[in-house]
Every structure is written in C-alpha cells, then in structure tokens.
C-alpha cells in the first residue's frame, strides 16, 4: 500500500500553503550581508580603500614631490608638524632631516610598501596555489615531495628565511620580493592543498575527468574556483604579512634602496632622531604602516569568519 | 503520595537569529517515587530540551520561559544558580547519550568520580575514592581499582556508559534523567545497560525519566509513556495501554513503523512526510500535514484532553474506537 | 614510546642533513664561496692558502664533505671582523638572547592565558571584544615600530626605564644572566615586552578559540550536571583540555621568538645573537652569518623534536596509544 501523499490527505483540506519564498538571495548578496555584520570590518574595508586610493593618487594629491631635489630646502629640515617653511608652505606632519615634507613622503612611501607587499603576496599566491593544486590533484609522490618542502619551509620563521636569502643575494627590491615569495608560498600551498584534496573527490571533478578534459583545464577551470574561499582569507592576511615583513627588512637596512623608500625605510631614517625628541620623523610613517596592516587584518579576520564553513549560521 | 517531580506547562524557547524556536511548548507530566517515565519522540521533538530544563541546563540562546518544575514540592524555576548546583548530581542526576563525549578525555576516571562526591559532601579523598570504587562494582565493572586509574578512551562504549551510570548513582539521587543512554551503543550492550539501570532504580527507589526515540526500548522499562511531537505532548498514559491501544495517530504511526511488527515481505510502514521545522510551524496541529485523519478542524490547535482516566491526548480525531490496524 | 622517539630522532636528523645541504649550496654554489668565506682584505697569497685550506678547488661533493666534517668538529669558520671562531662568538651571545626570549615567552603566557580565558568565557562582553581587537593590534603592529614607540614613551618622555643595552649580570650555572640583578631587570623589561607582543596575541587567540570550542563539549555540560562548582569546571575541565595545544604552540613559537629577537635586539642594542647577525650582515662578515644560520637551524629542529616528545607525554590519548599497541 502506498503511503498517502500530502494532497490526498483528506477531503476539502487545501494543501499546506507554501511558506512565502524568501527574497532572492544570491551567494554574493549573502556574502556581503554576512560580511557587513561586523561594522568594524566594514569601516576597516572603507579605510583600506581610502589608503589604496591615496597611494595610487600620490603624485596628484601629495603637496610636494619628495624626490624632486629642486623642491627641497634643507633649511626646512627637522621641522615639527604644523610649522611653516621658508617659502610659506605648511608642513602638516613636519619634515625629515633633508627638509622633505613628511606627508608627501608617507604618501609615496605607501605606494612602495603597498606595491611590494601586494605584489610579492600575489606572486606567492600564484606559485603557492599552483604547487598546492598540483600536489592535491596528482597525489602520490608529487604530493609527498611538495608537502615535505612546505613543511620544511613552514618550520622556519619568516624573518629567518628572509634574512638568509638577503644575506646571500644582497639588498634591493627584487631580492626583497624573492625573499617574501619564498617565505609565503608555503601557506598558500598548504591551504589550497587541504581544500583541493576534499574537492577532488567530488563528483564534478570525476565528471570533468570523464569528459577527457585536459589536466590543466580541470585544475584551473573546475578545481580552483571551488578552493578559493580559504585562499582569499589566507591571501588577505598574507598581504598584511608581506607589507610588515618588507617594512621590517627595510628598517633593518636590508630592503628597498634609499632612492625609493618604503614606509619601513622612512621609519628607519627617523630612528636616530627619536632620542632627541623629534619623534614625528618615525612616528607618522609608523602610524601609516600600522593603520594599513591593521585594516587589512581586520578585513581578513571578518572574511575568515564569514567564509568558514564550520561556523555556518 | 506527593510526586517526586511535577512539571507544569513547561515552556522553553530558543531565541535564534532566524526566529524563536519553541522547543518545549506547554509540557506537563508528573512522576511518583520509584516510577519510570518514558519520554518518546523523534529528534527535534523537544524531549532532550525537556530533560535539560529540569536540571536548569538549557544554554543560551535557549531559556525556560514559562511553567513550573516542582521537585518534591519545590519550584526549581525559582532557584538561584548556587541552589541549582547543589541539586545537580545529588538530588537529580543525568546520564547523557554519548559516553565518549561526556567523560573528559584528559582526566582519569577516579578524578571525575571523586570530584562528583566532593562537590556535594565534605569527606576525605580516601572515603570518596572508596565510594567511587563501590559504585563501579555496583554497575558491574570488573577490577574496579585498575579501572579507576584509567582514562576514558581505554574503556569500551558500554563500559563508559556504566561509569556514567555509576557517577549518576553516587549520591543516590531521587531522580535520574537518562537522555538516550543506549542510542550510541550496540544492540547487545543496550540490553545489558537497560537491565542494569532498571535493577538499580528498583533497588534504590529512584525515579527515572528515560528519553528515547525508540519505542521498543521503553516498552519493557517504563511505567508511563509521554509521546512528544514538535515540542508538545501529544499522548500520555500507562505504557501497556498506550502501546496496545494508541489514541493519537502519531503514536499509532510510530508503533506501526517498528520493524518487528511487520509481516515479512511487506513494505515497512512509514509515517509520510518529515518533522516540520520548529521555526515555521504550520498553524493548528503540528502533525496535520502527515496525519491520515486530518481535516479542517485540525487548523486549530488541539488542547490536551482526557478521553479516559489516566490517558491524555492532544488530538481532534483520536482512535477512540478500537480499529483494525 | 621509544620506537616513536627513535623514529622522530631519525626524521630530525634527516632534516638537519637537508638543511646543511641547502646552506652549503647557498654558500658554495649560489653565492661565491671565495667572497663569502675569505676575508676581503686577504692578499693573493693568503687567498690561495685559504682556498686550499677550505678545499675550494675541490669538486663540489668533496667540498660538502669537508664542510660537514668541519661542522661536526665545531669549526664553522672564522669571523673576519673579530678574528675569532664564529661558533664561539655566537655561543657567547646566546645567553643574552635566550634570556630575552624566555622573558618574552613568560610574559606572553602569563598575560595571554588569563586574557584569552576571559575572552572565551564571555565572548559577547565589551571587555572581550576589546581584548580581541587588542590581539589583532598585537600581531599587526610591526615589532620594530612598537619598540621605537616604547623607547619614546618610557625612556625618553617618562624616563622610567633605560632605552638601550643589557643591564649588569650575575652568574648562575656558569652563565651570566641579567635578570638576577635589579638594574638588569630594568633593562630587560622593555625589550621583553616588545618581543612578547606578537606572542601574547597568539596566546590570547589560541586560548579563546580553545575555550569557545571546549565549552560547547558534552563533557563540560556533564561536569555542570554533576553539580561541580563553576570554578572547577573552568579551571580543571576546560583549562586542562586547552593547555595542551596552547603550550605546544607556544613552545614551537619559541624558536620563532628567538629568530625574531633580531629586530628587538637591533632597536634596543641588546647584545645577543640577533644583534650579532645583523651587524655581521652589514659588514658582510659571512662566516658568522653561516655559523649563525647553522646554529639556529639546529636549535629549531631540536626544539621541534622536544616539543613533539613533550606533546606525546602530556596527552594521555597519544601516550597510551603506544602502550596498548
């Protein structure tokens, strides 16, 4: 005997009204509303956008081009914030020992810091993700070898590896980028491998394999997009790390050259004046660096909560 | 004789982001001394939350919002946290479902038993240890001295549950609430545990609430049965009467779906449909969508009625006349 | 247990060997060994003598063996600047760095555990949110900048604590430690706080995550159902479960702390290994750099090994697994 269906339950009873359909919720809209639950994260994101804009538009909005020697007046050196220089120009954040306007220096420095940080993080992302995907997809020996490398890499602290590389290769932007990439690729590789191992067993990958699609296509068109969420979280945090690492290396004198100072180098320049009370030369670039890193981390933190499948609401 | 436990119109709601979940909605029952009450229902019926409410262990976002819980005449809902603490483990004890997760994996068994004794009585550690050892013997665990020094993961599932029962019995509570204690165990072990609990409760005159989704388990054990559905009691009565002549269509469906009742070769009978989500309960009787006897009258909420002495039912169309199943 | 130990030891040995190969390749193959290991002001004759002594005219694999042999004998080259064996230089400076790192770790655990515990037990409270926001600051703030600010505020503006250098030392177990003198302690405070910032944040976050996870576990609910005092539930049942991972991570991070002391030592002019390596990098005193890297790598691997052993000793589930076989 077949069990009675809902419709034929009894005479005259209208079938249960379907509950009113919820407003069309695309994954993107859901993601945005989940993210916006933390007001702090939203503010942080807005701040981050402002920072990026400021860096991009530096040549336009900076009151002075700090690298144009003609514009500098060394008599204006080491002026505290708010003082007016010889030519009637107000130095909002003071000047450094060469008479450069701190505000302009910070804006230009922000460019370098962001460019190097984001750039190296991105390269590390590409390299690490590719290796992680390959390890997960092909499995076996490839997986073991790559993962051993990852373990080896991760068991050493970032600063140590970076120091090693810079000690042997010397200073300069390219070497800093190399150092950061070597430090960071392993995080991406490990993260993506974990996710990819799970995704690899899903049916859609099997289906793609049945269609005899090339390995590259399967990995990059099908596997990768589904592994993105944790990668995005890791990527965000890694950008912050990269910026901090570059700043530290530049501060120690092992990073970017003096001609293109990042925020780290600016801080280093001001170090010697700290003890004589001229704090602004180190302080304001530090604030800029600090705010940048903090907002990126705040955004990344919220992203992690939102994209974490285990905290599914 | 005053009832050991009398629950009146208990309501416990969960205030989630998605809405208010009425996990326990107007539940009332009472248990006398030494009696066994079987609380039966599917998952999501509110039976576990009822059990937790009696011990004041409903955690946020849930809360007991109404009703009274009279334990030996004392209303537990009005207790302070410290008063609750004194009752828990001593006057009312609880046994959970999964013994692997209820015993702390990084603490030894003796630690976990001795601390229970010391939480309610000022005795020496030696005396507490002796009590613990005796409790293990009582529940039939061999070589208790060795076992005391062991860690939970060194026990089998059945043994762990025996330890949990021993812990529950340490202070000879007047009431034990057992929340699906045999669900996570093998069928053979189930029988053993059932027997142990029954024997011990009989010996000590302990009242017992046995929460389960399995009718077969409760059939041989309970004196009275309460059937819950979607947070409400839909049928209540002495166990023999309810199982032989169920009044509520849901109870009838439950009984009918027990495999042993079917004739070999016939399809297993099922209650069609699924438990409704407690977030969006349909108006009227919660069982309406799955009930073969539902009609327009069921759009209103049925109240609890007493069609016969000792029986309670929440239905507009109970099986009052004996029908052929 | 011993089988496990031996296996781990073998693994560690393999990693050490792998690191020596990488270092060796870095120095001898990628870099120019002549530049790296021979002082730049050596004249031609000395240079040729050194080349012969170091075996730089030999095939690569033979050079590697020489390198290994020397390393095992404790000869890791001579510093250009100080004209002393590099190894001895580094070992001389080690106590200072160890002292700093230990102080920072102690700080981190003593402050981080209670703060993390609080934030985990009351996640919605304002104080918890402040703590968590603070922890984000803790690991976002670049260490070197915080160091500068600490100097600025406490040394320059307020004048409470000295800004640079290590205080006077007293001898203990054959080594010189500065925390044993009051003046030494004063010098230790700022750099230790600076170095510990990152770790405090780590410990806070770890502890909080652990607490939040543990508090939901059944065994915590069961502990409450037994009527245990809340303090016991938190400090015995919850804490013991989270201590193991927290301590393990902290111990693992110790190596990272030592490495990171490079920055702190530079800023505070603390005469430890870190300052030595930075100075050496500036003046291109490469034998010291190579020696430092070797030692740090060795220390790391040793630390990993010790922590592994410690972990299996602490967690009864792992420890007893080997015994039961």
From TrEMBL, chain C:
Keywords (alphabetical) are:
Cell membrane, Membrane, Transmembrane, Transmembrane helix, Transport
Question: What Gene Ontology cellular component terms go with this record?
Answer: plasma membrane
The record places domain ABC transmembrane type-1 at 94-307
Where does the source fall among the domains of life? Bacteria
**What topology does it adopt in the membrane?**
Multi-pass membrane protein
Intracellular or extracellular location(s): Cell membrane
One of its GO biological process terms is:
transmembrane transport
Xref: CDD domains = TM_PBP2 (cd06261)
Assign the protein's first listed, main location to one coarse class: membrane
- What sections of the protein cross the membrane? 12-31, 100-118, 130-155, 175-198, 242-269, 289-314
Family statement drawn from the similarity comment of this UniProt entry: Belongs to the binding-protein-dependent transport system permease family.
| Protein name, UniProt field | ABC transporter permease
């Amino acid at each position: 005997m077949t069990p009675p269906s809902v419709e034929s339950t009894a005479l005259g009873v209208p079938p249960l009204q379907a509950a009113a359909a919820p407003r069309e919720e695309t994954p993107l809209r859901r993601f945005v509303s989940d993210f916006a639950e933390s007001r702090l994260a939203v503010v942080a994101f807005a701040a981050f956008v402002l920072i990026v804009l400021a860096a991009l538009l530096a040549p336009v909005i900076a009151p002075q081009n700090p690298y144009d020697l003609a514009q500098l007046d060394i008599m204006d050196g080491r002026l505290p914030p708010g003082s007016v220089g010889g030519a009637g120009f107000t130095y909002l954040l003071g000047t450094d020992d060469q008479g450069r306007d701190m505000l302009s220096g910070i804006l230009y420095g922000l460019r370098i810091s962001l460019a190097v940080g984001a750039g190296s993080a991105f390269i590390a992302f590409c390299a690490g993700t590719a290796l992680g995907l390959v390890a997960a997809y092909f499995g076996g020996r490839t997986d073991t070898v790559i993962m051993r490398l990852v373990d080896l890499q991760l068991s050493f602290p970032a600063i140590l590896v970076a120091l090693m590389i810079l000690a042997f290769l010397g200073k300069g932007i390219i070497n800093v980028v190399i150092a950061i990439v070597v430090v960071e690729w392993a995080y991406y590789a490990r993260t993506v491998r974990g996710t990819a191992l799970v995704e690899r067993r899903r049916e859609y990958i099997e289906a793609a394999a049945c269609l005899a699609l090339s390995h590259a296509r399967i990995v990059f068109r099908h596997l990768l997009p589904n592994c993105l969420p944790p990668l995005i979280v890791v990527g965000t945090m890694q950008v912050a790390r990269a910026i901090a690492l570059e700043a530290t290396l530049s501060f120690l004198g092992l990073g970017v050259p003096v001609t293109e100072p990042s925020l780290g180098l600016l801080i280093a320049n001001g170090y010697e004046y700290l003890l004589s009370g001229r704090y602004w030369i180190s302080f304001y670039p530090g604030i800029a660096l600090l705010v940048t890193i903090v907002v990126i981390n705040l955004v990344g933190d919220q992203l992690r909560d939102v994209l974490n499948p285990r905290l599914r609401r | 004789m005053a009832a050991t436990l009398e629950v009146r119109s208990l309501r416990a709601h969960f205030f989630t982001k998605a809405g208010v979940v009425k996990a326990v909605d107007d539940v009332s029952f009472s248990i006398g001394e030494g009696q066994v009450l079987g609380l039966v229902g599917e998952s999501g019926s509110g039976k576990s939350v009822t059990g937790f409410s009696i011990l004041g262990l409903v955690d946020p976002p849930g809360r007991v919002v109404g009703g009274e819980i009279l334990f030996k005449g004392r209303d537990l809902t009005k207790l302070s946290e410290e008063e609750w603490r004194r009752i828990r483990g001593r006057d009312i004890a609880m046994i959970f479902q999964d013994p692997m997760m209820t015993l702390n994996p990084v603490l030894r068994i003796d630690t976990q038993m001795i601390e229970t004794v010391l939480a309610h009585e000022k005795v020496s550690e030696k005396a507490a240890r002796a009590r613990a050892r005796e409790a293990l013997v009582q529940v039939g665990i061999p070589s208790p001295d060795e076992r005391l020094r062991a860690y939970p993961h060194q026990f089998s599932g059945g043994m762990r549950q025996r330890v949990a029962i021993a812990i529950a019995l340490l202070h000879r509570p007047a009431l034990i609430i057992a929340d699906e204690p045999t669900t996570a165990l093998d069928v053979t072990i189930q029988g053993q545990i059932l027997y142990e609990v029954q024997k011990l409760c009989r010996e000590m005159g302990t009242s017992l609430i046995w929460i389960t989704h399995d009718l077969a388990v409760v059939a041989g054990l309970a004196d009275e049965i309460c059937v819950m559905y979607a947070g409400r009691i839909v049928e209540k009565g002495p166990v023999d009467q309810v199982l032989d002549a169920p009044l509520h269509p849901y109870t009838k469906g439950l009984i009918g779906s027990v495999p042993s009742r079917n004739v070999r070769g016939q399809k297993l009978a099922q209650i069609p449909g699924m438990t409704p989500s407690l977030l969006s309960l349909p108006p009227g009787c919660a069982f309406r969508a799955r009930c073969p006897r539902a009609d327009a009258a069921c759009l209103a909420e049925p109240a609890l009625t007493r069609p016969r002495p000792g029986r309670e039912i929440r239905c507009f169309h109970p099986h009052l006349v004996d029908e052929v199943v | 247990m011993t089988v496990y130990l031996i296996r781990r030891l073998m693994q560690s040995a393999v990693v050490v060997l792998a690191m020596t190969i990488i270092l060796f390749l870095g120095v001898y193959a990628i870099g120019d060994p002549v530049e790296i290991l021979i002082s730049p002001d050596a004249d031609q004759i000395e240079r040729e003598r050194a080349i012969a002594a170091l075996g730089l005219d030999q095939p690569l694999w033979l050079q590697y063996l020489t390198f290994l042999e020397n390393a095992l004998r404790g000869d890791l080259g001579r510093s250009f600047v100080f004209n002393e064996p590099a190894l001895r230089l580094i070992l001389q400076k080690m106590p200072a760095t160890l002292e700093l790192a230990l102080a920072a770790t102690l700080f981190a655990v003593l402050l981080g555990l209670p703060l993390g515990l609080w934030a985990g037990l009351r996640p919605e409270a304002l104080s918890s949110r402040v703590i968590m926001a603070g922890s984000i600051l803790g690991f976002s703030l670049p260490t070197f900048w915080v160091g500068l600010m600490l100097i600025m505020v406490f040394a320059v503006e307020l004048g409470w604590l000295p800004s640079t250098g290590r205080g006077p030392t007293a001898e203990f177990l054959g080594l010189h430690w500065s925390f044993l003198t009051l003046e030494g302690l004063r010098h230790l405070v700022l750099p230790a706080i600076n170095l510990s910032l990152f770790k405090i944040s780590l410990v806070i976050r770890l502890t909080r995550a652990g607490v939040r996870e543990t508090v939901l576990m059944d065994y915590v609910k069961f502990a409450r159902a037994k009527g245990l005092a809340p303090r016991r539930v938190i400090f015995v049942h919850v804490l013991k479960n989270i201590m193991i991972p927290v301590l393990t991570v902290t111990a693992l991070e110790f190596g990272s702390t030592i490495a990171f002391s490079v920055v702190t030592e530079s800023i505070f002019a603390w005469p430890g290994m870190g300052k030595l390596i930075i100075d050496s990098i500036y003046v291109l005193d490469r034998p010291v750099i190579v020696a430092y890297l070797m030692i740090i790598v060795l220390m790391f691997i040793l630390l990993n090994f010790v922590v592994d052993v410690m972990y299996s000793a602490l967690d009864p589930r792992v420890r007893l697994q080997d015994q039961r076989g």
